[in-house]
Amino acid sequence: MLLFQNVKETIYLVLIVGVFTLGVSGVVFSQGDTTWVSTYTWESQNNPQTNYDSPGRRWFEFPSGDNGTEYRKVLMYHNLKCFDQGTAGGLGYACGEWDYLTYNYLFDHTGELDSTSLTHPQYKINNSDFEFDSIIFSPLEGTPYDTILTEYDRYFHDIIGTVSLSTSSGAFMSTDLISDAVGQRLQMVWSEEELSSMGVEMGVPIKTISLEVGAISADLLTLRYKWTNSMNLENVDNNGWTTVFQFPVNTTGLLELGLSENIVWDGVSDLKFDLSFENLIVDQCEVVSSPGNSISFVSNGGYVLFDGGDKMELDVNSLQSLSDEITLECWLKGDQDWLPANTTIFEGVNAESQREINVHLPWSNSRIYWDAGYSDGGYDRIDKQSSESEFEGTWSHWAFSKNVQTQQMKVYRNGLVWHEGSDKDNAFGEISKMFLGSAFNGDNSYRGGVEDFRIWSVELSEDLISQWMYKSDMTGHPFEDNLMAVYNFDGDNGTAEQEDVGSPFGGYYFGNAGRFSYRATELFLNPFSPGGNTEGGGLRAAFQFIQGDDSNFVSVVEYAVSPYFREKPPVSVSTWVVNGNDVDWVEVNYGWPHDQLIVTYNELGDTLSTYAINGDIVEFSNSELIYFSPPFEVVDRYELGRFITPYGINLSLGSDGWTWIYDVTDYLPLLRDSVELECGNWQELLDLKFAFIEGTPPRDIKRVEAFWNGTFNLNTWNEYVLAHSFTPEADEEMFRLVTRASGHWFGQGNNCGEFCYNTHSVNVNGAEQWSWEIMQECADNPLYPQGGTWIYDRAAWCPGAPVVTRRFELTPLVEGLQDFSVEYDVTDDPYGNYRMEGQIIAYGAPNMTFDVELMDIVSPNNRKVLSRWNPVCEDPVVRIRNNGSEPLVSCTFLYGVAGEELQAYEWTPDSPLSFLETAELSLPYDAPNYTQGDDDDLLEFTVNVELTNGLDEEEMNGQGYSYFRRPPTWSYSGLDDNRIIIWTKTNNNPFETLVELTNRNNTVIWSRTYDQANTIYRDTLELNEGCYRVTVTDYDDDGLEFWANNDGGGYVRIKKVAGGNFLSFESDFGKSISQAFRFETNLISAVEEVIEITEAPSIVIFPNPTNGSVKLKINGFENSADWVLRNALGQEIDSGQFRSAGGFLLSLDFSDYNSGMYSIVFSNDKHRAVSWIIRD
User: Fold this and answer.
1) CATH number of 970-1080: 2.40.10, 3.30.420, 2.60.40, 3.30.200?
2) Residues 72-88: tens digit of each pLDDT
3) Threshold 0.85, pTM exceeds
4) CB of 336 within 8 A of CB of 348?
5) How far apart are CA 752 and CA 754, in angstroms?
6) Pick from 330, 274, 273, 270: which is nearest to 306 by CA?
């Protein structure tokens, strides 16, 4: 825990702490004693030992609840900075790439205990709940099989001309090469030298391969070949084969294999064959001794196939010896029609259901995660991006190891280190449950095959993993005694793992995961050398090759249909009972649904016939088991604020980061003593501090009640976001509703909830009181440019900014009521969701009759979030609030640059400010030191506000100051020139651009719009000495350049007459960009400084002609204008009113109009303008 600092200093010293110790600069801060609480820090997160992980859920010490100190305000400083050492999430960017939700959560531990009523079905069939079902446990026909009928063809190449026969010397008959087997596979290689010595001719087709046998039959014989330059046959080769024979065989004497395509030797390559048999019966065949040139695989067991919703529970008794080392390994073949998806291969948890071991292979983002060892609220993890070819479609061997002593975690693929991580020292706890094929709770089901799953209590080396991964039998392994569990899946379906093979390691299936045998062509485990690998051993088939040109043969094709029988796995039928605060299964049996169909397919997967299985039917009527969870402490979660991380590619937040300040005064009763927080994520470094400012609050916070907290889909909003009732307590007199709703997801329909316009509303006691459009302007975000689509408006949020918090004063609507209700409604939509939180804050009566508070100094201020406007030439802008119960009718300000004579200003609002009403106003100020001088100087601007009547009851909250820097000063050497050039290069849409020059009174003295695309405009202006601001506005909110549009690129520069720039504006600025500057010169322009702009009414239309939508830019109209659209006959077809001020564009859709000419007229009481639109 971090202890808070109690800072009892003057205002100056408090801000020194804020600026230099806490990294918070340019902050308005009122007089008064302040206690700072430091929670999360950059340093703790920017740490390779924590894998640069998220801040997480932590405890911190806050001011004591009984310290006798009254706080008038609590501010939360949310500071983000890019990583200094590693990268965000290890993904290569100093700031995180994406716009992710982050929450500032507070967890209130109430000390109360509760228990949750839970239910579980008495029976589960196929690992699922049901109401009524029927099962056949013993089908009359025995185990059911589906049948796949495949048509094969073979060629007979009858000799009609001259051919050659190549044979091997030293051939003899043997029973050791092939023997009776459900399946057998041979891989054999003939070297270039052997082929040459046998007499194989280069360039002449091999048409038939024959082999002397005694008697042989096989449901299917498959022969494949490939050319190679390697004689290595240590393990299976599964790549690059060409099938040249595939047909059932049954013959004696000479087995002739007429090839479906020619094999032609190039004279230099080695020739490799893959020969396999299904249901083979054979007595002997002709062989040669060729040590090291053949390997064999025999069907001996199989693999388990998970198809979703399945899992195998492991008996964890054998895992209790797990200590500081572990290796888990298995073969995996992921379902390429399903992956990538969120999957879990295996997960083991401790008695608290905390993860001890886990592998996601893959997750839906194709990353592979290896988690091992739980400690201090989390587990060690390494992860890496993978490709689909690595985890689906083919068998791959994966191993996962950890050594707590060396702090190493590793992932191996096919015997080689694939990924590794260091500083992983979390020891393993006792594993109480472990599952294969899913997470421990049944989620994230794996889809694919698993073979030879083993768990070792030792970290295996790369060499050992590689040497043993093709073996199923671990007898003789150097660490055989460390083998904690092994599952080879060689048993029969409908049995637990230990029942039929004598394994001491139990495994119990839930679902319909089936154990399947390999087809002969798929065999790859447990390779051996037929006949041994010594002198005289290492047998290879004595193939005879018949060669000749195609003209020397007449070929005949024979067809046959061969069946393949694939077992239908049974489903689990599990029985459950209540055991204290949990449920346990007490029995699991296996059977088939009573309506299970047996299907015959053709090779294309078409159904040829079906019939239902027969047998005694057992009916199940399910019931619900009711039990209670273990007692737990009631912990209420409150959201203090919400933030969306910025698009971080090429983004820099500076060495001191960016700070967003949240007023969290409403949560003061919760921010006391030991507080548990959860904030931020792994996208950026977070520094989070709280400032407790002493003084009298406007009203005391009595209670905070949170509800509507979660993710709610728009299509079920009315079902889950219900009216919330609230009952005031005795000392509660005033009430406020706080809501935070941010819309997410898009891509369907109206792109809800992230990008869709919809109306939100709040009802109080059934009557609508407030409604608003949810979309938020993002193109004016002060944090710009960002790496993604940061300019796009979104539903109550923007990347790199806090989510909008709305506060609704309920007091006038509910005063005197014994209870009341609030309801939050949203426009219906079938897509999208909102992250939602609602809170009611209950207060006492106002603490003061007369009080005004200085809330903020908007300018001058060097706070980064105010940098769109600052630095300034214009008058200072402040925000105040009436904290008194009586209306505020007048207040007096005393303000100025520190060290200068302060100026006074009495302000009277147009209408009195009511309790807690705020106002933003300008303070007249013309002190030379405000804008004249070095723009590197860090100055201080002080403000004091008091009620004019002298009755202000809390003087300390009216005082504050900000740090600021002056605008830059531009001048020529000798001050002998007074010209600047506004140099504008337009992009593809010049009509969107406006450049304005204003003086310090905000009066426009020059402006320019543009009508030619990709054109350079040079405007030379003469300026008198003074302070100005140049502003570039883009009416489409996408700046002069943006990566995700078709506008091309443009720029605006303020150039010197003799060359060089005063300023080059950033082109990716979104809505607008501006710069205040002071201009110094000895010359006086003949033109008055303030030039009145008189703009004739005009209409700019683009594109024109059009076949869809058009945009109209209206110039010269003040405020609003009425418009009428007419066709060529003068008939009115549309009309409306448009507010032309503020640079808005009018959009009209012509897609449904006929081709032709249309007129549009804009008019008001002063002006009238007409233009024409052509519809193609």
Assistant:
1) 2.60.40
2) 999 999 999 988 876 76
3) no
4) no
5) 5
6) 330
